[in-house]
Specification:
Elements (H helix, E strand, L loop, with lengths): L11 E7 L3 H12 L4 E4 L15 E2 L11 H17 L4 E9 L7 H13 L10 E4 L4 H4 L7 E10 L1 H14 L3 E3 L2 E9 L2 E8 L5 E11 L5 H8 L8 E12 L7 E5 L5 E7 L3 E5 L3 E3 L10 H14 L11 E10 L14 E5 L8 E5 L6 H15 L27 H11 L5 H11 L4 H4 L11 E3 L2 E2 H11 L4 H8 L8 H18 L4
Parallel strand pairs: 1-2, 1-10, 2-7, 4-12, 10-18
Antiparallel strand pairs: 3-6, 4-6, 5-6, 8-9, 9-10, 11-14, 11-15, 11-16, 12-13, 13-14, 17-18, 19-20
Helix pairs in contact: 1-5, 1-8, 9-10
Bound molecules: flavin-adenine dinucleotide.
């Protein structure tokens, strides 16, 4: 398990962050880069909450224009090229086909929305929208309905769980103390600071941490965390909306995504996913239960299959599904009557009953796409409450600093893949590409001086060797087969149940031998 380099006094920190999703890790990165001492606790694995269950788009959110969320859409659109540049290994541009559906939104309205989409977000590198004739274009041929007109526009795709881990890793390398499987179970305000109790979810050992400020970045659990502070308070700061996805073997061959507007006003994406699959989502319904227990329902599975079948020539059925995931979006409760109408924008709320006591700042809402800007706004609040750090005092810095492994130009992606293949000629081109798409220039950190597959240690399946597994344990906080197969990589899509069990068994004996979980 990685060990933090910079701790002031054993358990005293400037900032304690609850939650290792994209927002918690993004704030940890920004704050530690500005010289603050940071302790982050994540009750489960990094990105085990909503941040690995998203549609995996870095996008402006075309439909939010209809809700007049111009501030949010502009910020999100601007972030597309910034994030692509700082993480060109895990973020890449995508073209989206939006067919014009007679009887739904008129073509002029779609064109107007896309005109704004192209122009309000400082787009430079991403190609502009164009109108396409779906009756002759290859993207129309795979569709079962006779669409004639459509639009093709740009957004980006991201490996969401890796974006979280790379933010955590960068925060760690800048001095943050990152703790997974560590739940915040108690918080008390004492003499101007916070006394927080965290519990290791594997060993059940408890530890006390002192902090000058707490950031509640626990996403859909934000109200639960607030109840830890005052169990008598039952405020509903957020409302939850469940969204689910299905993964099926590729239903078309080209590389573009589709965005369909359904007659019930929902929007469905179909996205090429990990070479051989299509990702289809998402549903959208209010959720009242425990965010830890979200899973796709039978009716959502049927809805997504039926929606896909309505549009594509290639028909799918529930038996074809190779994977599903479901998550809950937490939206700030702005009093809207329906969740669909609640703001998609994030709200940062300072809780401090009087200036003598330690403050807490809550994150309500947010998108993967806007995490970096959210962290910058959070730093403004923090700097207004704590004095600026003496260490670096450097202000905004994350816009141009690449994330681990992303220190190459976006146009050099193919060259970086070829270089890795040339340096390790025993790897297939496909394997070199898989490594670059996950680890970028850091791939060599575990390939080191390997000259053959034997040098990579034990082989599990589908290109996974011991060297990569140990790297994930020692550098990226991986502890279980699920962490490795579903969040650090997506090899879970290819592993059989038996292969997953073999990996789990290997990990158990590895941790027993090395005592790394203690
Ligand atoms: C279906 C769906 C699709 C989406 N698609 C997109 C998209 O394509 N693009 C986009 O930009 N956004 C998308 N979003 C939104 C985006 O996924 C979320 O806004 C974002 O992931 C929220 O991150 P977070 O860090 O706030 O929360 P989370 O990722 O949920 O992280 C919160 C963490 O806090 C931890 N935690 C909870 N309680 C405690 C405790 N007591 N102690 C310690 N840790 C605790 C949890 O374990 C969890 O890991 C989508 C959301 C959904 C639901």
């Amino acid at each position: 398990m990685p060990q933090a380099k910079k701790v002031l006094h054993s358990n005293d920190y400037d900032i304690l962050i609850i939650g290792g999703g994209i927002n918690g890790c993004g704030i940890a990165r920004d704050a530690s880069g500005r010289g603050y001492s940071v302790y982050l606790c994540e009750a489960n694995d990094l990105a085990s909450g909503t941040s690995s269950q998203s549609t995996k788009l870095i996008h402006g959110g075309l439909r939010y224009l209809e809700h007049y969320e111009f501030r949010l859409v502009r910020e999100a659109l601007t972030e597309r090229e910034i994030l692509w540049k700082i993480a060109p290994h895990i973020i890449y541009p995508m073209r989206f086909i939006l067919p014009h559906h007679k009887g739904l939104r008129p073509a002029w309205l779609l064109r107007l929305g896309l005109f704004m989409y192209d122009h309000i977000g400082g787009r430079k590198k991403l190609p502009a929208t164009k109108t396409i004739d779906l009756s002759s274009n290859e993207t129309g041929r795979v569709l079962s309905q006779n669409f004639s007109k459509g639009f093709e526009y740009s957004d980006c795709a991201v490996d969401d769980a890796r974006l979280v881990t790379l933010n955590a890793l960068d925060a760690f390398e800048r001095g943050a103390n990152i703790n997974t499987q560590t739940k915040c179970i108690d918080m008390q305000r004492t003499e101007g600071h916070w006394a927080v109790t965290v519990e290791d979810q594997i060993t059940q050992k408890q530890k006390n941490i002192n902090a000058r400020i707490i950031i509640n970045a626990s996403g859909p659990w934000a109200d639960n965390v607030l109840k830890t502070l005052d169990p008598t308070k039952h405020t509903k700061n957020i409302r939850l909306v469940q969204g689910s996805h299905i993964i099926v073997p590729k239903i078309y061959q080209h590389d573009r995504c589709y965005i369909f507007q359904n007659a019930d006003d929902r929007i469905i994406f179909a996205i090429p996913y990990h070479d051989n699959f299509t990702l289809i989502g998402t549903t959208d319904h209010e959720y009242d239960g425990d965010p830890s227990e979200t899973k796709i329902t039978q009716s959502e599975i049927e809805y997504l299959c039926n929606s896909a079948n309505e549009y594509f020539n290639e028909k799918i059925k529930p038996d074809d599904i190779v994977g599903t995931f479901a998550g809950v979006r937490s939206l700030y409760n702005d009093g809207a009557s329906k969740a669909q109408e609640a703001t998609r924008d994030y709200v940062l709320r300072v809780d401090r009953p009087n200036p003598k006591v330690a403050p807490m700042i809550n994150v309500f809402g947010g998108k993967i796409t806007t995490y970096r800007r959210l962290a910058e706004s959070m730093m403004e609040r923090i700097e207004g409450l704590l004095e600026k750090s003496n260490d670096t005092n450097k202000g905004k810095w994350t816009k141009s600093a690449s994330l681990p492994g992303g220190d190459f130009a976006i146009d050099d992606f193919d060259t970086i893949c070829s270089n890795l293949h040339n340096n390790y000629p025993f790897l297939s081109k496909q394997e070199s590409r898989r490594y670059i798409k996950l680890y970028g220039t850091r791939s060599k950190n575990f390939l080191t001086v390997a000259k053959s597959y034997e040098d990579l240690g034990e082989f599990f399946s589908n290109g996974l060797y011991q060297a990569e597994v140990e790297y994930l344990i020692n550098t990226e906080w991986a502890k279980t087969a699920e962490d490795i197969l579903w969040r650090r990589t997506k090899l879970g899509l290819l592993f059989t149940t038996k292969e997953q069990q073999i990996l789990e068994k290997w990990l158990n004996s590895y941790f027993k031998k090395t005592n790394k979980l203690e």
